[in-house]
Predict the 3D structure of the following.
Amino acid sequence: MFTTIPGSDLPYHVKTSSKITVVGVGNVGMACAQTCVTEGLVDELALVDIQADKLRGEMLDLQHAAAFLPRVNIMADSDYAVSEGSDICIVTAGARQREGESRLSLLGRNLSLFKSIIPQLVRYSPDTILLIVSNPVDILTYLSWKISGFPPNRVIGTGTNLDSSRLRFLIADKFDVNAHNVHGYMVGEHGDSSVPLWSTLTIANMPVLSICDKDGVKYSRESLQELHKMVVGGAYEVIKLKGYTSWAIGYSTASLVKSLLRDQRRIHPVSVLAKGFYGIDKDVYLSLPSQLGRAGVLGVASVQMIEEERRKLHESSETIWDIQNQLQI
Amino acid sequence: MHSGSRFLRQASSRLLYGFGRSQLHLRPGFTLSILNSSMSNRQDEGLSAFARRMHASGTNLEQHTPNSIFSRIPGSEIPQHKIKHSAKVTVVGVGNVGMACAQTMLSAGLLNELALVDVLEDRLQGELLDLQHSAAFLPRVKIVADTDYGVSADSDICIVTAGARQREGESRIDLLDRNVNLFKKIIPELVRHSPDTILLIVSNPVDILAYVSWKLSGLPPNRVIGSGTNLDSSRLRSLLADKFEVSALNVHGYIIGEHGDNSVPLWSSLSVANVPVLNFHDKKGVQYNKETLEEFHKAVVKSAYEVIRLKGYTSWAIGFSVASIVKSLLRDQMHVHPVSVLANSFYGIDYDVFLSLPAQLGSAGVLGIANLPITEDEAQRLQNSAKILRGMLDKSKMQ
């Protein structure tokens, strides 16, 4: 059912106390930090950013919540030494999408930033798992993998975890069920060329293409495309209205952190080294349904794809590969 | 009417250990007889739907004996049977504080329905969508938003965070007049759509605005609460927890009075693992007397200003604080929180003013105020706190 990523280094023993570092205390970073803390996932939290005042203010605000939370050690510094010994390093730093700007165009602005961030994280936590959130997430995760020299199971991008969840919510709404009873993945690029796997999307274990929603509407692939557009457009819409997204990505990241730290062996569509899977022959990171545990990506699920889905996945990988080449990563 | 000397003796012996010869000041209370007569008259008048849900046999209010732990706020309307609720909360104001409150309540799984109200349409819609996109990670919740208060109908709790926020260096009192006018628009709308709701005021200056909300709403005082010193007390407990290297859950104590520069830390009832802190000598010979403890209090008062100076506003801590209050209300926890309540008749305060006292919270709102003995000195500070707040009210556009 699962295939390990070639080059993986999967250890046998794991330690018990948990520390995570969040790099970047903007809206996304703080939503991730606060949600992880709220869910009782960490014993230690380190925040790193270059803006000293904002960093200290955010640290204090979280520390002031101490009496409402299980005991957590919260620290912050612009010096990466504070991140030492982290089980997971979450990178949210970088320029964010402006209104109407695609994730790929952010890339140039974030390349050099990552060249200064990743080596520092690796230096202080050589055994850590890197979890990249900054956009464009697939390319920046690939970059992080290259710079860090880590085995690929320890470098992950948040990828389409949130997109898939958004899709499941929209479908759950249409069919009047709980989102937890909708099972399905969006794979490929976290962005405009993402691929919804309709052929394996089920509601209460029934294929979505075979049942009617609460209004008696039976869905075809075309009408489902509308839902896909809504998911892809979802982030742009939130950015246009409130300037950025934060809450949803915070919950999404926390769910990944939980699966990793608590060795949940749970499947998430996240950005992983995709070469060798589904006929992809390029050195790219993109989202595939992956099993996550304490050692990182334990394997990629062998979800059946129909020809059209495979083709779209390849197109997704070509898009990413082209850009990586253009920017000579 | 003072309670009998038996209570005084019991209270003294409880507190003399480690405190030396502190003077005890008792809370002069209204007795049940006064409450009873006012309640029985009410039954013939037009009662709110809320009050009509009271037990048919009349006013079975608990006996207010001198030894009771809690005393009702005069004017409270507290039904006898379980209040059914749907766990719907409205948050007015989707700024940093409002959204932190909303998101923390969602994370805590407290709600079946969340309504957001604000005047800024785009921001409101954006925050709504961002939360809705989180749906797959949360238990099923209905999340709605509108500039029209109709969306808030039938809320169990209405949380008001709207209003100008403190500028750097600005005290909470300076915000006052900017916010009173805003509340004149907000509060009547909330009550119109949710006549049975509990109002939870967060906007600063919270004690004044809680009073304003009470006046504007016409609700009984048990259903109007300010977030008050709930967070201040928690900050104090965390600081002491760090100092004594224990969990904050094992530090017991309250800051009461004004949520602000004139708050009153109750050193006389502060304990760590039930060991009184006042005049405690630690291993290094450090004595925790009023002077050394005052440093902790100062740190608490300063802390919000510091966060505002550094990041522009506070959000996470107040979000958690409000969620803890909401949990006690929605889940009928009967948990005691220092929150801003109508303090008339408590601790020598004999006029209408809202300030924080240790209040037991449940689904009917403020079930009662703890009859916590405090020292003469603490009572004096509390009364000063009350005088200052009453002074502000007299000067403001609210009578």
Summary: Residues 1-51 of chain B form one domain.
